[in-house]
Here is the input.
Amino acid sequence: GGHEAGLGRGGFLTADALNPLDLDLAGGGGVKVFAVGQLGRADGVEDDVLGFGVGGGGFIRAEDVDLVGVEAAGRGIETGEHAASLEAGRPGVLHGAYSYLLQDANGQVRETHSISAGLDYPGVGPEHAALRDAERARYVTCTDGEALRSFHRLCRLEGIIPALESSHALAVAERLARELGPDHRVLVCLSGRGDKDIDTVRAVSGTPEGDS
Here is the structure.
């Protein structure tokens, strides 16, 4: 990201859904997150939807933009092998945070599954829980298979290797783009590099070494 000198005039250009507290600490207070509104207006076109993978927490203030978070549906919500805390969890406390958790009838944390290590977690950041409950953001799910297809598609079409976390958001962005049509824009946060995920993708996709 970049930061313009001068307290009160600075900003971060970020490719992730960041906690504003982190930005305040990094910038000395009052730091604005430039992600949707300012990026969209740079070329005179407004962004309609922001898509981001749901991990540990964070949100972006952009009241005129629809926020869509994507949770890991793993092998399918119906199988129980997923990490969709907002979709299938209920309120509880984990690691000192009160939020939505995947837990059994006795309140014990359930095992989770996602092809993405960054999304394979039984809870979700309280910011996301608040956004969901306030109906400021809506949350949908994406399976391992859908994320893998978007991973390969971005590699082929753009030469960019996305993280598997971001691949979940890309898959849902494709859905939204078909629904919204060419007159709307969808901004996706590519929150990490996918070179760390190549071995996982190769193992799951059956791609021979050197051919990925």
